[in-house]
Amino acid sequence: MNKYIYATGAFALALAMNGLPFAALAESNGEGGTDAPQTQRVGEAVREQQKQNAEAARERQDQFLKEQKGPREASSSSEVGEGADKQEIDLEFEDDEDQAYSVEDLKQKIEVRKHELDQEVASTSPDHQDIVENANPVRLAVHALLASKELVGGIGPQVSEIAKQMNDSVATTANVEAKIQGRGFLTRLLFGGDSAAADVIAQQVAQNQQRIDDLTKLLGEANVPADIQATLTAQIAAIQAAQQRLRDLAQKEQDSWGLFSWRF
Which domain holds residue 170? Predict the structure, then answer.
């Protein structure tokens, strides 16, 4: 602020000082009796010089203000960029390369993957830990479904395809949830919840519910050993619970109204 006051003061002082020569000349002419045409020409020259000096001073002031404004804009842009990056969550997709060939093998692979996911939560930024933790039951279930391809007989390819679709869905909902979580207090106060994000989650939940129904039907109709079916059914139940949590989140976001929200 002191720099702006200084710049403005300097500009005003320059204008004031530029007026001194003309005032002195006018006083001198009054005392010495210089002829009018010469006085007029000198006066015009002085006024032109005053104009040029004023323009130069204004340009210097504009340049000064621009130099001061530039760093603030760069800082603001940097903060916005960091905020956008802060909302991004890059979840590792599950793959179907780690196949199980017995129910004991499947259970062991589930335990190993669970331990890895717990470690991932511990190493995640505190801003996103709860989101990753909420996503992990679905990721673990996807891992189990993909690993069971050789254990479920002819429905293996269908189970794997549905699991891969779940892969995409959990990545989408995690990032949308991060966007909701990053919504500032003032934005919520004025505009309420993020209805667009809530709609995305609601759509994903509806699609996942259909996938859960398809998986349940496949396992029920296929000749799958009871122990394998029980293991996979437990994983499907975890997916179901995760979808209920997301459904509640979307509803809460849709029901959150701000000062400028419109109710119809």
Answer: 93-255
